[in-house]
# Entry
Amino acid sequence: MNLVILGAQWGDEGKGKIVDLLSSEYEVVVRYQGGSNAGHTVMVNGQKFILHLLPTGILHSHTIGVIAQGMVVDLELLVEEIKQIEGKGISVRDRLLISDRAHLVLPYHKTLDALLEKKGKIGTTLRGIGPAYMLKYARKGIRVCDLWDKDRFYSLVRDNLEFVEELCKKVYCEAFEMKVDEVVDRALENFEEIKHCVTDTSSYLLNTKKSILFEGAQGTLLDVDIGTYPYVTSSNSSALGLSAGTGLPPKFFSGAKFLGVSKAYTTRVGEGPFPTELKDEVGDLIREKGKEYGATTGRPRRCGWLDLVALRHAVKLNGLDGIVLTKLDVLDGFEEIKVCTAYKIGNETFENFPASLFLLEKAQPIYKSFEGWKESTYGITSAEDIPEKAMNYINFIERFVGVPVVMLSTSPERDKYIWLSEVFHGKRVGSSNIC
Ligand code: GDP
Ligand code: IMO
Ligand code: MG
# Structure
């Protein structure tokens, strides 16, 4: 049975750790949207890996990693990342497939990203993601397959540079200069390093009999269609992006299991509405205990209580079968823990996540309060060691969102987790009676 793992919040939920640990049971691991804006952290015996473009499952030597067509690929960073991991003794290029239909991120996409940020801040990662998708949908994008024909590639880059130069100068009154030869030569040098990995990945995925894990990047609330638009990323980072991103028909996923990863609280990097944000010492404490600093940009993450209105939105729209709850250990020792169960906007109570930014910005969270637990849950691996008050908290979450919390992650390390509900075999270990 294939498995889809998605971020159920605003990204950085701990997807990397979960994908890594579950990859031991899968033969193929696929990234299918976003690009190097992702930062997926894995800790193995104290050694830290942060993956940006490679599927996280590549760290297991038995897997095949796929960079599918919906990704936007910065070859410069990809080659650097591959070499870094190969430098740690893990082979990559003999197990990596890169879609010939994936679009490229080139240096001028990053220039445009920085320029657009100056004119209206989203708080992007400045990795050129928005502009790469912008040119893709404007039908001016350049794809991996275009690198096979040097002359064609040259003329595509030249046309792109003319367009970007005009845009910068005429629309934004900013100087722009980039040499076609430099961009082309560098891209071709990088292509030489990985060209044997390039293939039609959707045909590969359609034809393989191997088990597949699909690794979402970012999170549902950053999805360009169902997230907090315009404070989102430029791809469909919810389940909506699976079919277009992989090049597989929607019915391919009908038998798959869908798990959403959520922290036991909420974080967000960059601008945009965040109803449960704590701009006080409690928020600071969560940031320090949870080491909430971006894996890609190092920026401090905004922190707040768990927003169950937003999480239920993610459960419904992704069709999640269960939640993997991470970082509960960060809440160890808190006197009081809160969860948001509805929003007050003006005189109205909202139980569903509104589309309008205007409403979201005014949303006041309505909280349910829990007594905290004193025991440490850090690194525990047995359900019996979960304090009763922590279990009450978990049980409330699953009842509220309507699907079970199937797994609890208890530290950054690969082997520190507890299955609470075995969705795959219908077994239940924890005390909840949800499934
Ligand atoms: P991703 O983008 O969803 O893969 O998440 P990031 O890697 O950006 O951020 C998650 C951070 O939380 C990383 O530093 C992980 O090592 C860490 N982490 C993951 N699970 C746990 C957990 O259960 N407890 C603690 N304390 N840290 C965790
Ligand atoms: P992972 O996969 C958290 C955020 C940025 C910004 C917005 C748009 O590690 O969970 P972009 O560079 O994509 O145009 O930025 O999206 N963002 C993320 N936040 N985790 C991520 O990825 C993110 N990728 C993008 O901070 O607010
Ligand atoms: Mg991350």
